[in-house]
Design a protein that fits this description.
226 residues; alpha+beta; elongated
Length: 226
């Protein structure tokens, strides 16, 4: 068994950040043969755990399995004393905080990725050849008009000046990149690139209001005379 004083150090390490209370975690110990196992799990999620295996023989390495790890989701390491166990518990707790704060953004990114995949799948058949000079000139005009429409929508939002300038600059960079690639990409490749940009714009609630569906925007750009 692990001494009560050391288990108190575990609870202190779990709760000292202020983000968590020690009781947000379940701390358990189990001894079998020559090994004692310290297991820590989260009451609020099955995605986070730490297990330390401590041999009775002093001087033996302590093996630790953690989720999330320092780089990969699952990680294993070995430390040589109790102080390093406590240090790893603190580091693990900090990673959980970071994971929880990142999850809303990660879900949003995943949703946008799925929407983009749907958009790319519904563009339809596009010719695998280069734009003519006339087609490229027409598309540049359409892109300029689209930039004006989206920029006007952005300017009408309630965001502060710094955010507006950042969004407008990003939009202009996207439009410029699309115009510049008209002479170097074939229609199929350009349509894919345009779909990526439209998918990005659709992820912004402010800009989305000025767009139809992403598919219609890309098809409208590629349709002659529209």
């Amino acid at each position: 068994m692990i001494r009560p004083q050391l288990l108190q150090q575990v609870r202190q390490a779990l709760g000292e950040s202020g983000y968590f209370d020690a009781d947000d975690f379940v701390v358990e110990t189990k001894t079998a043969g020559i090994e004692t196992t310290l297991s820590i799990s989260c009451r609020f999620s099955n995605d986070f755990s730490l297990t330390a295996r401590i041999a009775k023989r002093r001087g033996s390495n302590i093996s630790i399995d953690v989720e999330p790890g320092a780089i990969t989701q699952l990680d294993s390491l070995a430390v040589d004393d109790w102080d390093h166990v406590i240090a790893e518990i603190r580091a693990w707790r900090s990673r959980i905080v970071a994971e929880l704060k990142a999850q809303p953004t990660a879900r949003q990114v995943d949703a946008q990725r799925q929407e983009l995949e749907k958009l790319l799948a519904t563009i339809g058949k596009v010719e695998d050849k280069y734009f003519s000079q006339e087609e490229a000139a027409e598309l540049r005009g359409k892109l300029d008009a689209l930039e004006v429409t989206l920029a006007d929508q952005i300017k009408e939002s309630n965001e502060n000046e710094a955010q507006l300038e950042k969004k407008l600059a990003s939009l202009h960079a996207d439009i410029t990149a699309l115009k510049e690639s008209l002479d170097s990409l074939k229609k199929k490749g350009w349509a894919q690139r345009a779909a990526v940009r439209v998918g990005k714009w659709m992820g912004d609630p402010v800009v989305r209001e000025a767009l139809k569906t992403g598919t219609e925007v890309v098809k409208g750009l590629l349709k002659p005379g529209s």
